[in-house]
């Protein structure tokens, strides 16, 4: 299943597949490993807000997205926000929302490779 057309992303109710919160948790842990840096929920909230045209996202909201152990996690309200979360986590949106395909976008690999324009 691919992400819906971007024109309808803000209006579409979100229907992710089972395991969404676990995938967010795993992607966040993976991002911290790749960056060799411990990040807080607030750090991720600020990264998402920067990608989401500056619209505020709270650390508490991110905490709900990361919560998977007791089945009380929540999901972003729109596909556009899931896509933004995926960009912040440097993972594919389809994997994050539906668990389909590969997790990685390869963004960190490209960033760590340095300038290849020479």
What is the topological layout?
Layout: H1 20-35, H2 41-51, H3 59-66, H4 79-89, H5 93-98, H6 107-113
Helix pairs in contact: 2-3, 2-4
Description of the molecule:
By secondary structure, this protein is mainly α. It has a single domain (15-101), classed as 434 Repressor (Amino-terminal Domain) (Orthogonal Bundle). Helix content is 50%, strand content 0%. The chain has 6 helices and no strands. α2 (41-51) packs across α3 and α2 (41-51) crosses α4. It is globular. The chain starts with 19 loop residues before the first helix and ends in a 5-residue tail after the last helix. Mean pLDDT is 80; it is low at 4-11 and 109-118.
Main features:
118 residues, mainly alpha, 434 Repressor (Amino-terminal Domain), globular, disordered C terminus
Give a short summary of the structure.
By secondary structure, the chain is an all-alpha fold.
Structural class: mainly alpha
Q: Can you give the mean pLDDT?
A: 80
- Provide the CATH architecture: Orthogonal Bundle
Cα end-to-end separation:
38 Å
- Supply the CATH class: Mainly Alpha
Topology-level CATH name = 434 Repressor (Amino-terminal Domain)
Please tally the helical runs, counting DSSP H or I stretches of 4 or more residues: 6
| CA-based shape | globular
Strand content: under 5%
Major pleated sheet: none
């Amino acid at each position: 299943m691919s992400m819906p057309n971007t024109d309808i992303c803000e209006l579409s109710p979100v229907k992710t597949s089972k395991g969404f919160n676990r995938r967010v948790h795993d992607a966040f842990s993976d991002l911290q490993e790749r960056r060799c840096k411990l990040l807080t929920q607030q750090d991720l909230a600020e990264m998402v807000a920067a990608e989401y045209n500056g619209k505020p996202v709270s650390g508490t909201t991110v905490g709900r997205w990361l919560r998977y152990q007791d089945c009380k996690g929540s999901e972003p309200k729109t596909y556009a926000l899931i896509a933004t979360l995926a960009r912040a986590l440097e993972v594919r949106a389809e994997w994050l929302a539906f668990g389909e395909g590969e997790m990685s976008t390869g963004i960190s690999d490209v960033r760590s490779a340095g300038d290849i324009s020479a």
